[in-house]
Every structure is written in C-alpha cells, then in structure tokens.
Amino acid sequence: MRDVAREAKLGYGTVYHYYPNRHLLIEDVLCSGFERCEQALAEWANICGGSSDDSQLLMYCKALLRLWQSDARTYLVYKMAAEHYAGLPEKDRHHTKRRFMERLYVPLQSIALREDDSVNHMFAVLVGCCGLYYYAGSSELDVDRIAKLAMQAIMKES
User: Fold this and answer.
1) Is the pTM for the entire model greater than 0.90?
2) 3-state secondary structure the chain
C-alpha cells in the first residue's frame, strides 16, 4: 500500500480511504485489467473471424505484449494466472481462475485451433519475457522477438 501511495503521489491514509486493505486494491486492479484483456481478445477475434492462422496468432502475441507494456493491469491478469492467483485470498481464487479460463484462455485456445498445452507454452514465454523487462525497469520490450519466441513455443519448434 505504501508503494501504491508513493507511486500515485498520494498520502498513505488516502489510499486506505479508498481501499481498506490490499486485497480490495488488487481485486479492483484485476477487474479492470480483465475487462481490458477481454476487450482486446474480442477485438482480435473479430479481426480473424473466429479462427486464426499462425500469422494472425503472431499478431495477437504482439498486440498482447504492447497492451501489457502500456497497461500493467493487463499484464497482472496473466502474471497472476501463471501463479494460480496465489496473491488473492482463498475465497477469491476459484472465481478469478474460472474467469481467466472461461473468458481468456479457452477462447484463445479455440481461436488458435490448439487443443493441447501449446497455449500454456506461448503464455509462459510472453509472461516470462515481459516480466523480466518489468523487473529490470526497461521501458522497451522487444515485441517482435518475444512474439516470435512465443510462436516457436506454440508450434513446438526449436
């Protein structure tokens, strides 16, 4: 909460006025992140007409990385999914995992025409590489390179 207050240039008490605990803050951030991620997936699905080829999937990987770079809330949705939303209270985890699976993961899997675990590998590459940039404090992702790595993961190529 102190970090949030410092980054937002607010008093510590002001943050607690709106969010009495960190779980409510995380819940609010995740909810808005989910909405934006769902919107991005719907826009991409519209463009590719409900099924995609590899070039369209590469486009989506790039769009997702750019979205994460511009909006940390959206990255948090996927990063926390990779960690099974362990930072949430137990009572909220199941609902959040289900939302991720039903609204983001399964739709992408069906649009990408992948029924195996290759989407897991794609997300692992995207989340991991993006996370390293965030943690290093680097402002520019190598979107093209990371997206190509993610596609290699989904196609099981070396």
Assistant:
1) no
2) CHHHHHHHCCCHHHHHHHCCCHHHHHHHHHHHHHHHHHHHHHHHHHHHCCCCCHHHHHHHHHHHHHHHHHCHHHHHHHHHHHCCCCCCCHHHHHHHHHHHHHHHHHHHHHHCCCCCCHHHHHHHHHHHHHHHHHHHCCCCCCHHHHHHHHHHHHCCCC
